[in-house]
Amino acid sequence: MPQRSDIQWGAETNGQRLARLRKRRRWDQRKLATESGYSLSAVKKFEQGNRSLDRADVILRFVKALDCHPTEITGQPYAPPDSDPDGQAAAASVAAVRRVLMRHGRPAWPTEQEVSGIDLAGLRARVAQANAYRQRSALAKSGAVLPGLLRDLQVAADLCVGEERRLAFGLLASGYECAMQYLYKLGHTAAATLATERVVWCAEATEDPLRRLSSRWYDAGEFLSIGEHDEAGAIIDDALTELSSIRASRPEAVSLRGLFHLKASLNHARAADGKAAEMQLQKAQEQANRLGEDRNDFELQFGPTNTAIWSVTLPVEMGRGKDAVRRAEQVTASLPADYAPERRSHHWIDVGRAHFYNGQRDEALDAFLTAERMAPQATRMHAGVRETTRMMVHTQRRSSLVEFGLRLGVV
């Protein structure tokens, strides 16, 4: 096991990237402090790596000031280290997935074999398998199946007519959702945005009002991720208004209504409006109680369990570690063992970040390791995990922490 003095710090920190972006604009630290609303002391600590630059709301304030993209600060996408062959396998298919996304809307020009092989029932089963990989965050397996699956779905959508065409586009939308999550987890945000656009277009072609609205949930997330809170809020408000005109007793409508309230709560949290965030969370909880069960409509998970997980996410997003840990104690105890590993791992990542904010470094590492066991690549590629782990390695000699940092590629 390498000693701390032997560790090579090759990767840039978020603070170093922030400093480089500031210098690109020929600003001094005082100018960045004025434009971002942070103190000069805070800017210095961020750039020197003495203060964690991992929270989305903090990053977005610098993004707005510097007119850059969040990934220019977070450094995504990350290259999996040699010590993570599964991560390298997951990343190997990114180019192939992006190529097939680029072909959306173009004539499929299928071969005779592809034409004769169109089988909607078979495609439905393959999409179900891809979604199972997605919920397990099995990124290497997702990357292996997505290029061929998306190609076959594009052929079916191009050639089918009538009701079969609508069904094909519904399956294609679901396939693109899998691609979007695969790319997003690996940090390829531009390609993930491309996939999101394809989801929206395909959902429109299904002529199903609820399917179309479900795609808007991802659309709102795109604007939220770059700090365009008003635009994200407008999409959410429009969706909730439209949902109010749909028969309220339909469980799919209840589920979507709750999901949009969750998205609204996150939007308010990142805009530093804690009161509004909690109000939207309460509205989501009301829909979850009304539903009374966990559902997976349109491959979007909603119900009491996911709402509980989000109740921990919100204080983490606002840097309220004590509130998040207090809530997590109840949520963790009631989290079903068979719930989607992707969501359970995200919960443990939030728990780890909350402990980090409280100065509880050992507890933070234990939570991250729990998340890694559930979803290895998704945890290792998570920007917040990487930034907080890097800072912890700076201040602790614990061997398991350094080993985790090596798997992430931050040491």
UniProtKB/TrEMBL annotation:
InterPro entries: Cro/C1-type_HTH (IPR001387), Lambda_DNA-bd_dom_sf (IPR010982), TPR_rpt (IPR019734). TPR repeats lie at residues 345-378. It comes from Streptomyces boncukensis. One of its GO terms (molecular function) is DNA binding. Keywords: Coiled coil, TPR repeat. Pfam families: HTH_31. The keyword Methyltransferase does not apply. Residues 18-73 form the HTH cro/C1-type domain. Residues 274-301 form a coiled coil. The keyword Nucleotide-binding does not apply. This is Helix-turn-helix transcriptional regulator.
